[in-house]
Amino acid sequence: MPILTRPVREQLEHDRVIRLLPARYKRKTEVVINPGSEQNQSVTVGELAVFPDVLIFAEGGRKLLAMVEVETGESVNQLEALAEWNVFSKLRVPLHLYVPPSSVDAARRLCAEHQIPVAEVWTFHTNFDQVRFTLIHREPDSALPKPKAQPKPAAKAKPAAKPKMSKPAAKAKSKASKPAAKAKPAAKKAAKKPAAKKPAKPAKKSGAKKRR
Questions:
Q1: What is the DSSP string of 84-120?
Q2: Quick check: 125 and 132 in contact, CB under 8 A?
Q3: DSSP letter string over 144-188?
């Protein structure tokens, strides 16, 4: 629900930041955004339907958990604070405010002057194709409530196992013991025959040489 017309550059930056925020809040929640002139989801304050920049619902989309409002340098002013921040705070759900670093002091002063409760104040800084977010202020107990874990169904008790009947032990069959084999007598070693002696050669007679 823009109160004033932003410069084109600031409007593009504003919508870009809004489109990046669902990734920061989407765990266990459902997030709906209203960038630019889009009116995707409204909330009712009294009889007035308003369109915050980001709406954070519990799973199922029934319970509103928090709202986020993104402001640029031109929109951090008294008119915006009274027409939007003050109205959103009447829903009694946490309001998160995102502003440029140069507008932090002005945003704090406006909230203090008009007694607007803000759960969290963040800054965003755009550097080429990246946007960095920095937490400046957080009220105690302002964190989003965690969904209650569903109780696990109790495990069914298994029926007690029936005791098994013990079978009678099988009778061991007595095997007839075979008679031990008698050791065979050691084979007699063949007696060695004495080696045959060779006959001695007769000695040659040495004849005396005759003189002529």
A1: IIHHHHTT-S-EEEEE-GGGHHHHHHHHHHTT---SE
A2: yes
A3: PPPPPPPPPPPPPPPPPPPPPPPPPPPPPPPPPPPPPPPPPPPPP
Q: What is the dihedral of CA 1, 15, 101, 77, to 10 degrees?
A: -20
Q: What is the pTM of this model?
A: 0.66
**What's the rounded Cα separation, in Å, for the pair 47 and 201?**
157
Quick one: which H or E segment has residue 208?
none
Amino acid at 147: P
What the chain holds in terms of domains, given with CATH numbers, is 11-138 (3.40.1350)
User: Is residue 18 classed as helix, strand or coil in its secondary structure?
Assistant: helix
Better-scored residue on pLDDT, 89 or 6? 89
pLDDT digits (tens, 9 = 90+) for 152-164: 555 555 655 565 5
Of the candidates 82, 26, 91, 90, the residue with the CA atom closest to the CA atom of residue 59: 26
Residue burial 18-27, b: 16+ Cβ < 10 Å; e: rest: beebbeebee
Residue 49 CA to residue 60 CA, distance in Å, equals: 21
- Residue 209 neighbours by CB distance under 10 Å: 6
